[in-house]
Amino acid sequence: MSEPIQNRYEFVYLFDVELGNPNGDPDAGNMPRIDYETNHGLVTDVALKRKVRNFVDLARPELPDHPGLNIYVREKAILNNEHAEAYTALGYDRDPKKWAKEDRTTREKALTDWMCANFFDIRSFGAVMTTEVNCGQVRGPVQLAFAKSVEPVTAQEVAITRMAVTNERDAEKERTIGRKHLIPYGLYRAEGFISAHLAERTGFSEQDLELLWRALSQMFDHDRSAARGKMAARRLIVFKHASKLGNAPAQKLFDAVTVLPKDGRDGRPARAYGDYVVEIDEAAIPAGVEWSDRL
Question: Is the model's pTM score more than 0.85?
Fold first, then answer.
């Protein structure tokens, strides 16, 4: 495993959706998530992390030189079974009450370290592993805020016809009507943070960092569904600090990136990424911070 990262990072991530539902709300009939005071669309950090996990899981067979790419939180995973693997690998009895008192602290740390070393998403996002088979907990260096649309969006509901029936007894019935929720177009902005100090605790490395950038760039290409319409990553603007502690407040860097409606729209709703202009105020970026565009 390579050394943990030595620099703090922040990033601005822009992605869009066309005729789709980027993140349905199960408490609202799976309608697109919206800030009801402003009508700005929302996508949760959990939804974005899910896509990162899925991409890494797909990419893992192509990365034999990158160890520890198992995914902890995946579909139908039984977390206690994942924890038990750590106990087996380290040769520990699964009942901590049987451990010698002087071994307890060392063994608890070893279990958490084993989970970090073997699971990409634990190294990146952290995890609470204090279940019946306890592997501790760790805070991850990579954190994302909710994504919010640059402008208000309009959530629409359209009717669709189901031509097939489930049971033979329903064969002569009229075909049923279903519902589909979508946003005609929305450009979303998410902001993220990467802590070098927390990376030391999990072992999040430069190799992991490069894989994270790749996942954010390509994950929508492997997450297609009829519900999500056309989604695409548009910009990934990365700020790298010269030190672990950082050389500028995160909000000052985020404020240097503005997304504006393109001139000539005259109030027309946006329907494509080309309806916006992304501006980066390089003069507002303090010394000790360099920026790059990863898309």
Answer: yes
Looking at the DSSP assignment, which residues form a beta bridge with residue 13?
Answer: 190, 236
Task: Copy the structure tokens of residue 114.
Answer: 């084993």
Q: Which residues contact 113 (CB under 8 A, 6 or more apart)?
A: 203
- Amino acid identity at 34: I
208 φ, ψ to 5°?
-65, -40
- Mapping DSSP to helix (H, G, I), strand (E, B) and coil, where does residue 257 land? strand
Q: What is the DSSP string of 153-183?
A: ---EEEEEEE---SSGGGTTSPPEEEEEEEE
Cβ atoms of 161 and 178 closer than 8 Å: yes
Q: Among 29, 40, 16, 31, which residue's Cα sits nearest to residue 182? A: 31
Number of residues in the chain = 295
Confidence of residue 66 (pLDDT cuts 50, 70, 90): very high
Q: Which of 243, 135, 233 is nearest to 197 (CA)?
A: 243
b/e map 87-96, b = 16+ CB within 10 Å: beeeebeeee
pLDDT digits (tens, 9 = 90+) for 1-45: 579 999 999 999 999 999 999 999 999 989 999 999 999 999 999
Under DSSP, is residue 251 helix (H, G, I), strand (E, B) or coil? helix
Handedness of CA 101, 105, 106, 108 (dihedral sign): positive
Instruction: Write out pLDDT tens, residues 214-260.
Output: 999 999 999 999 999 999 999 999 999 999 999 999 999 999 999 99
**Domain assignments of the chain as residue spans, ordered by start:** 9-293
